[in-house]
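User: Sequence for Phosphoadenosine phosphosulfate reductase below. Tokens please.
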Amino acid sequence: MSKEKTVRHVCGISGGKDSAALAIYLKQQGRVPEMEYYFSDTGCELPETYDFIDRLEAYLGKKIDRIGSEAPFEHHLFMVGGMLPSPKQRWCTVKMKLEPFEKFVGTDEVMSYVAIRADEHREGYISTKPNIHPVFPFIHDEITRKDVFRILDETIGVPEYYKWRSRSGCYFCFFQRQEEWLGLYDNHPDLFNKAMELEKFNPNTGEGYSWIEGMSLSQLLERRKEIVDLATKRRKDEDGRSWQEILLEEGEPDDQGCLVCSL
Ligand code: SF4
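Assistant: Structure tokens for Phosphoadenosine phosphosulfate reductase:
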């Protein structure tokens, strides 16, 4: 007698606001009690992200599986000859997020709950594997950015990194702006130094690998005043609002990069 295959329901938590709000929303609605939560931990996330995941886990009252790559980032970096990941060479997302997810799912039939909102037009990672079926509750229920902030305000709050950074992801993520790199330097100098040590860049020839195209992190520090002045001017133009307020009123920055990592 053949046994009927069970469909799994999974919800990926990135450390960003939308996926956390989706998990909370579905719990509050009493939908999908058998939901499995997972977090693709690169091992290089911000301390604020780990705190946020812990807070969410406590609220959900259910374990969030940490399903990162078996090998650390440094191993993958070695395997690609020290070539730092970049927008054009995004091996980090494949090795540290997508492959662990597809291994977690295996060949099971899976409904994958994705936190894309009703007020945005972007795509998260949607697997092409035939056994993974995406579900979009926020789009279906017309949940927008304002609802997401309300859900978080009423429960676990927003991630602390919003004080100095616009999105979750690895501490060295190449999608961050120059002022956010300075925020990393101010808030986590040890992590900034680690990122600096991974660079192999010749400032005279411009050859090698740096996190910011054409500029090493030590050069970034030398240009600190100029970068801060520019960012301050932009803040003034934006009425001195924090990232949280900008995100709430206007949405994600145009240079929104890693949707797998920051949804
Ligand atoms: S957060 Fe950035 S560095 Fe980390 S895996 Fe995603 S794209 Fe790569």
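The mean pLDDT is 89.
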